[in-house]
């Protein structure tokens, strides 16, 4: 069903890491998970207005992997927008998705959606730097974001980026708060009250936090999850802690309506349905709706 009444609905899929098993082709573990996630999203009773692939589309920037991804998402009956992550190759990504806008050589751009009280701007930020696992946010990118925010100070705005500008407590994945890109990002968004949320990936697990008073959430990965272990880590002591686990793949749906944002995180797998709305549940539903007056 086309979304024409519930508000603005944005789907996010992140960290697909296609190409981790380069010889496996379309039977690759990560690609199969991606195909299943996309199929689940497209089977929903209400389709999103758009899908944002928020980085680490591939595991090593292989051109054939981008083309495999593009062939798959062309089946989507809604627009698909892409962002690079630290495992990507920006040039190859842009070759495979030439419609992706750029600014100052970076894959970052503004989108407009919704009308009236549901109007929303979306700013997609490029946090990729070749050779770095962590994020990047240089003066050029900060200047672009500042211009976009200052040009629309009263329009609700959501930011999408690959690297979350927070310290999550998973030491081998975390930035240091003193890193230049980290402090520059915080300084750039500070005081811009039209930013309703920051949506990120990279951490391969769900997370909620706050950045300069702005809600931030991380969508879990399509590729296997980063294990939750908050102990300090010594790189010289291999302590056999879990690092990656084959937890279910996820996608998220961000619903913007009447000035309120709600984010849902959906795992994809095979589970038994324990209840459906059938005749015997009508009294319960009537009572629940009656409570709302």
Summarize this structure briefly.
By secondary structure, this protein is an alpha/beta fold. The chain has helices at 29-42, 63-73, 90-96, 139-151, 180-189, 282-291; strands spanning 8-13, 50-54, 80-83, 109-113, 120-124, 157-160, 195-200, 207-211, 214-218, 225-226, 244-245, 250-257, 260-267.
Describe the structure.
There is one protein chain. The protein has about 290 residues and is of the alpha/beta class. It has six helices and 13 strands. The protein has helices at about 30-40, 65-75, 90-95, 140-150, 180-190, 280-290, and strands spanning about 10-15, 50-55, 80-85, 110-115, 120-125, 155-160, 195-200, 205-210, 215-220, 225, 245, 250-255, 260-265. Helix 4 packs parallel to helix 5 (about 180-190). It starts with 7 loop residues before the first strand and ends with a helix.
SSE topology sketch:
Blueprint: E1 8-13, H1 29-42, E2 50-54, H2 63-73, E3 80-83, H3 90-96, E4 109-113, E5 120-124, H4 139-151, E6 157-160, H5 180-189, E7 195-200, E8 207-211, E9 214-218, E10 225-226, E11 244-245, E12 250-257, E13 260-267, H6 282-291
Parallel strand pairs: 1-2, 2-3, 5-6, 6-7, 7-9
Antiparallel strand pairs: 1-12, 4-5, 8-9, 10-11, 12-13
């Amino acid at each position: 069903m086309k979304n024409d009444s519930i508000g603005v609905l944005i789907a996010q899929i992140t960290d697909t890491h296609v190409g981790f098993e380069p010889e496996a082709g379309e039977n690759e573990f990560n690609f199969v998970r991606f195909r299943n996630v996309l199929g689940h999203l497209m089977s929903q009773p209400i389709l999103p207005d758009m899908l944002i692939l928020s980085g680490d589309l591939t595991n090593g920037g292989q051109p054939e992997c981008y083309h495999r991804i593009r062939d798959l998402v062309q089946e989507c009956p809604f627009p698909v927008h892409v962002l690079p992550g630290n495992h990507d190759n920006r040039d190859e990504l842009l070759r495979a998705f030439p419609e992706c806008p750029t600014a100052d050589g970076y894959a970052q751009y503004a989108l407009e959606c919704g009308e009236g009280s549901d109007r929303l701007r979306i700013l997609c930020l490029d946090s990729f730097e070749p050779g770095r696992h962590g994020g990047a946010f240089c003066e050029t990118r900060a200047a672009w974001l500042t211009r976009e925010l200052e040009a629309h100070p009263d329009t609700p705005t959501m930011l999408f980026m690959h690297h979350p500008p927070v310290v999550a407590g998973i030491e081998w994945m975390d930035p240091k708060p003193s890193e230049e890109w980290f402090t520059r990002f915080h300084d750039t968004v500070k005081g811009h009250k039209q930013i309703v949320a920051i949506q990120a990936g990279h951490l391969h697990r769900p997370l909620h936090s706050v950045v300069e008073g702005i809600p931030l959430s991380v969508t879990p990965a399509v590729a296997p999850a980063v294990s939750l272990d908050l102990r300090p880590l010594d790189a010289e002591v291999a302590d056999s802690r879990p690092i990656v686990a084959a937890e279910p793949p996820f996608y998220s749906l961000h619903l913007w309506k009447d000035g309120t944002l709600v984010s849902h995180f959906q795992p994809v797998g095979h589970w038994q349905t324990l209840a459906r709305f059938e005749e015997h549940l009508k009294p319960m539903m009537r009572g629940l709706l009656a409570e709302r007056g």
